Amino acid sequence: MRICGKSLLVLFLFSFASHSFSQSWLEKIKNSGVKIPDSVKEKVTETFSDETVKKSLNKTAESMENAFEDITPEEEYYIGRAVAAKILSKYKVYESDEAQSYLNKVLHSLTVFSERPILFRDYSVVILDSDELNAFATSGGHIMVTRGLVKCCDSEDALAAVLAHEVGHVLLEHSAKAIKKSRIGGAFAQAGGTAVVAANSGSAESVAQAAAMTEEIDSAISELLEKGYSKQQELSADTKALELLYGAGYNPHAMDSVLKALKEKSSASDASGFGKTHPTPDVRLKNVAIRYKFYPGESSYKNSEERVRRFKNFISLFG
């Protein structure tokens, strides 16, 4: 979560001024990864005597405490659905019940052998009606794959590799970890915002300050969606995908065909899609190549006629 220096000063001046925040809270904040500038600590030299300010800060202490708690499966689902809604506001869903049904069957053939075969409302995948090469995964098992990326696949195993990568993000809790950081940042914003309003008797200026902080937090979340996960998280999701593919009886080496197709059809300079939110295909190819030694050779895997038939039927649905 990115918070500008000015906002940090406001947030910590008010939070540390409250008797509600003990030394143990300081340790929790440090452990959360939020850095407190020495210049801010030095400026906190006295405690507010205004009871209104203290009351306001005490009220937001609970929010701060909740920010450090684990997210429940139910919270994971609904927060993930909210993030998915943001994504779906930018894309149309590809209307094909048959394609949707097939893709969900492939998805569940992967998740049933995972360490989390069942989620709060189960895993689900939708196809986005876009030529862009992209896919998204949010907490709670919400997965979205573009039509363009689906058409890069040359087999059911390759399609399973795309989905396995996204499931990997869910299983490794990449979205949940980002949400926890957002909750911490949001709690700080709430603490600072309510303190500003209380200290200034709800003046228009103080209300505007609090609103600006809320807007900044929302902007940071949007930035997270835009930039995607970190490079290391993307590589970890690929590694997890190989495990899922092998467990479900798919060919882990099919990941190569997907990454090579992405390399051919996209580049790191793309304005959108995998080229913007993922490491380059070459980096990802090297990452999985190192890990193929843990799985049987590619010649050990044979596509069944039934698998070939149903994949061809699926691809034909896109014209």
Report the structural category.
mainly alpha
How are the strands of the largest sheet arranged?
Answer: 1-3-2
Number of strands: 3
Per the principal axes of the C-alpha atoms, what is the gross shape?
Answer: globular
Give the fraction of residues assigned to helices: 55-70%
Series of secondary-structure elements, N-terminal to C-terminal: HHHHHHEEEHHHHHHHHH
Biggest sheet layout: 3 strands, mixed
The averaged pLDDT comes out at 74
List low-pLDDT spans.
Answer: 1-26, 39-49, 187-201
Counted by DSSP, the helix tally is 15
| Spatial separation of the terminal alpha carbons | 42 Å
Gyration radius, rounded:
23 Å
Q: Give the strand content.
A: under 5%
Task: Characterize this entry briefly.
By secondary structure, the protein is mainly alpha-helical. The protein is 63% helix and 4% strand.
Question: Can you put this structure into words, describing what you see?
Answer:
With 319 residues, this protein is mainly α. Helices cover 63% and strands 4% of the residues. The protein contains 15 helices and three strands. A hairpin with a 3-residue loop joins strand 2 and strand 3. The longest helix has 26 residues. The N terminus is likely disordered.
Layout of secondary structure:
Elements: H1 5-17, H2 23-31, H3 38-43, H4 51-67, H5 73-88, H6 97-111, E1 124-128, E2 135-138, E3 142-146, H7 147-150, H8 156-171, H9 174-199, H10 204-227, H11 231-247, H12 254-265, H13 274-277, H14 281-291, H15 305-316
Parallel strand pairs: 1-3
Antiparallel strand pairs: 2-3
Helix pairs in contact: 1-9, 4-9, 6-8, 8-11, 8-12, 9-10, 11-14, 12-14
